[in-house]
Amino acid sequence: MFFLKINRTAFSLTNYLTQNLLIKRNYILFPTFQNAVTINVTTNKLILPSISSFFLQRRHRAEFAPRHTKYRKAHKGRVPVRIGGSTKGNTIAFGSFGLRVKDGVRLSSAQLTAAHTAIKRKIKIIKGSQVWMRVFPDIPVTSKGNETRMGKGKGNFDYHACRVPMNKILFEIGGGNIRKEVAKEALRIASDKLPVKTEFVEKEDESKKQKKIDEVEIIYIE
Questions:
Q1: pLDDT range class, residue 116, cuts 50, 70, 90
Q2: How far apart are CA 35 and CA 74, in angstroms?
Q3: 3-state SS track over the chain
Q4: Residue ranges per domain, the chain?
Q5: Would you place residue 206 in the very low, low, confident or very high pLDDT band (cuts 50, 70, 90)?
Q6: What is the CATH topology of the domain spanning 63-145+152-215?
Q7: What crossing angle do the helices spanning 180-191 and 109-123 adopt, rounded to 10°?
Q8: How confident is the model at residue 46 (pLDDT cuts 50, 70, 90)?
Q9: For all residues of the chain together, what is the average pLDDT?
Q10: Greatest extent of the chain over all pairs of C-alpha atoms, in Å
Q11: Could you tell me the sign of the dihedral formed by the alpha carbons of 73, 112, 199, 208, in that order?
Q12: Confidence of residue 219 (pLDDT cuts 50, 70, 90)
């Protein structure tokens, strides 16, 4: 905590108290930051919280966003195409049911937030159910305004996004003995929020496919 003295005359505190502030037990609370900013009338001091919690209120918004980034901007890049046979993130790891993308796509934080909220709204009636998001938007995306000269690097920050390769699991649902019908409907609603074709996968199906692969006999022809 740190303290900052203010002048009643300069800030016309009397008029501001009667119009915009809430008075309670000799303390005045700002309506926007009722738990963050207080003024002690007797000592004539403005009490503010730590700088990290006062100036970073935008971090705690609804959309997904990284807490800290090393650079403000990033290259657009391309969605990775796995040509080496990597299957990382293609199978269910936490839950019992999942939503998998069929094509490579770049998803914004708003789209992921909408899908995540739709899933939570559908399965919240089932006690013990959980949802896992296997991707996270950590790439800053910029956009240029109208009547701007050509060239890159001029745009201001617009939103965060993530690059999702083909066959990547986006969301997983499990816990609470959730039924397949409920999970499938929740993931169907979430897929309507995304600009990419998706498919519903089940953990048992993944284990069966892996078992079939292990049972394949390799015949060498001389």
A1: very high
A2: 36
A3: CEEEECCHHHHCHHHHHHHCCEEECCEEECCCCCCCCEEECCCCEEEECCHHHHHCHHHHCCCCCCCCCCCCCCCCCCCCCCCCCCCCCCCCCCCCEEEEECCCEEEEHHHHHHHHHHHHHHHCCCCCCEEEECCCCCEEEEECCCCCCCCCCCCEEEEEEEEECCCCEEEEEECCCCCHHHHHHHHHHHHCCCCCCEEEEEHHHHHHHHHHHHHCCCCCCC
A4: 2-51, 63-145+152-215
A5: low
A6: Aldehyde Oxidoreductase; domain 3 (3.90.1170)
A7: 150
A8: low
A9: 78
A10: 98
A11: positive
A12: low
Please choose, from the candidates 123, 132, 60, 64, the residue with its C-alpha nearest in 3D space to the C-alpha of residue 95: 132
Amino acid at 115: A
Show Cβ contacts of residue 121 under 8 Å, excluding neighbours closer than 6 positions.
Answer: none
C-alpha R_g of the chain:
26
Strand partners, 3: 47
Q: What's the CA gap between 3 and 19, in Å, rounded?
A: 24
What region, left, alpha or beta, does residue 54 occupy, with left being phi > 0 and alpha being psi -120 to 50 degrees?
alpha
Q: How many angstroms separate the CA atoms of 131 and 112, rounded? A: 13
> Alpha carbon of 212 to those of 73, 85, 103: distances in Å?
46, 18, 25
Rounded to whole angstroms, the Cα distance separating 47 from 4 reads 7
Per-residue pLDDT of 118-142, as tens digits, reads 999 999 999 999 999 999 999 999 9
Predicted TM-score (pTM) of the model is 0.65
